[in-house]
Amino acid sequence: MKGVFLVLLMLSFSVNAEMPVGDAERGRLKFGPCRTCHYPEQGVGHNNGPSLWNIFNLRVGSQPGFDYYSDALKQADFVWTPELMNVWLADPKRFLPGNMMMSLGIEDAQDRADVIEYLKTFSEPETP
């Protein structure tokens, strides 16, 4: 597992070096194809993929009530951050081999940043 973490860290530096500022409204439009499997709204629940409500700072593979995580996601040991989500969205199969994500990823860095900014709008407010 330590090897996977090092790979994630290296990928994160190479992809995040180019991460632009995202726009939630553009992200809403770019998220459309993701709705085939995921819903970010609170209370909507899971679809073919897990709910993305409050995804940031959540341990990967741990959305309550979603029982279809791949072994790769069940065994991964990290929490979702915007930076790691950026690497994931760039190339999910490379980020974590063996996962069951159906998407090939979002190639464009601006599109990824926009989707991430959109997902941030579906989070619990931070408590001081």
UniProtKB/TrEMBL annotation:
Record's signal peptide: 1-17
GO MF annotations, alphabetized: electron transfer activity; heme binding; metal ion binding
Transmembrane segments: none
Domain (Cytochrome c) ranges: 22-123
Keywords, sorted A to Z: Electron transport, Heme, Iron, Metal-binding, Signal, Transport
Cited PROSITE patterns: CYTC
Superkingdom, natural source: Bacteria
InterPro entries: Cyt_c-like_dom, Cyt_c-like_dom_sf, Cyt_c_1A/1B
This protein's name: Cytochrome c
Origin organism lineage: Bacteria, Pseudomonadati, Pseudomonadota, Gammaproteobacteria, Litorivivens
